[in-house]
Amino acid sequence: MRRHLITGRFGTDDRVAIPAAADEVSTRLDLVAANKRFDYGIGRAMDDLAKMGIFPTETGLDLLIVAAHVHAADTRVSRTTESQDSWTREIRLVIPVSDQARWTGATSILERMLNFLTGDRWTIGFRKRPPRFASAVKIRPLIFKKPSFDDLSLFSGGLDSLIGAIDLLEAGGVPLLISHAGEGATSDAQNTLFTALKKNYKGSSFDRLRVWMSFEKGLIKGVKSEDTTRGRSFLFFAAGIFAGTGLDRSFTLRVPENGLIALNVPLDSLRLGSLSTRTTHPFYMARWNDLMVALGIKGKLENPYWNRTKGEMVAACANGAFLKTLLPDSLSCSSPTKGRWLGRGIEHCGYCLPCLIRRASVRRGFGADSTVYTVTDLSAQLLSTLKAEGQQVRSFQLAAERLRRKPELASLLIHKAGPLSDQTSAQKTALAEVYSRGLDEVAALLVNVKTSPN
């Protein structure tokens, strides 16, 4: 195991001494290209927003810079080689910000949310930006076209975020959609769906911000990259809030996610820790709202679908006919490129956890499913639980059977993925109910599917 220190720098002349402990590997993260423009998509995002009449605050820019540090560490520090247990890393960040005192006051919230999100041990420190970057945001001109956006909504290329966008547009909203332009398959899905939305809702002036952020392999010398990216949602949320601070009013950032995935209750003992993601868990979302209060940002995060299953989202979509035409273009699979080993293109595998929930939701909402799956028919053959094709299927079957025998377990199991201390009694009851209904949806899909360890 090795502890890692990542120090953010603004230009080659930023040489403030930041000592590393004897057991820390220190890496310099240069965030300014050619000594003047923010790199890693940050400068581009500011330019794109300015064209829309959106000018984020210094604190908003700070937040995106914090997210850059988190994303660099999360994707470039290998869990396999840099931790004692092949999972938990120890990472310290020292980040230049505009208001050191305000950010230092929010440190405990930030560390708590990151520890929960990624399962690592984060230590965050702040320092004042170099003098020439004391003011770094674009200044709003005296005459400019004020943006008409009335909401912000995450737009990942997945089915839930597509439903979220359609529902807003059908209600007459003018959302600014927020995307992280990541790997190719996800980026292509975002492009295709956004183009289709613009064509269908020609009368609306909605738009999107795509943050292009990735870090070169080898950023940390002698250390391999990390593929699990548990911290990606931190960048995603930060990008939306960054944009929201430029609306010059209070705002809501919508995070469309069905209740079953948001809770992400472990299906069995194997889905604890590394296999249990927390990207939209209620506890994590609540810490974001705490962070915004601490930073003086007049915004809030909200999941409008926290008490609905994915199937209920599909069935209740405000324009189901349009959604149905876009089904094949949305992307839910956790590993859409694994079909390449079979000589196939980018497609849904059909058997990972997100694919199973997706298949069940489309069955509930539409019946027929036009999505191309690598495993077309789950019931066509006996699925081995020793292989990926059968592992999640069997876990869902066991979880559904356990709940069928003891329905009262739902109110206990919803606490396994994380604390629900921010939720009222009524909300906890609703979460237990959406968990039960979500498992029922998937169980109905798997009624005739056979699994075996042989």
What's the quick description here?
It contains 16 helices and 13 strands. The chain has helices spanning 42-51, 58-76, 79-82, 100-105, 107-118, 159-170, 184-200, 232-244, 259-263, 282-295, 310-316, 320-326, 353-365, 388-405, 410-413, 425-445; strands at 3-9, 24-30, 32-33, 37-38, 90-97, 121-128, 151-154, 175-180, 207-211, 251-254, 299-302, 383-384, 451-452.
Structure characterization notes:
The chain has 16 helices and 13 strands. It has 454 residues and is an alpha/beta fold. The strands form four sheets. The chain has a five-stranded parallel β-sheet with strand order 9-8-7-10-11, sandwiched between helices. Strands 2-1-5-6 form a four-stranded parallel β-sheet. β8, α7 and β9 form a beta-alpha-beta unit. α14 (388-405) packs across α16 (425-445). The longest helix has 21 residues, at 425-445. The protein is globular and about 65 Å long. 48% of the residues are buried.
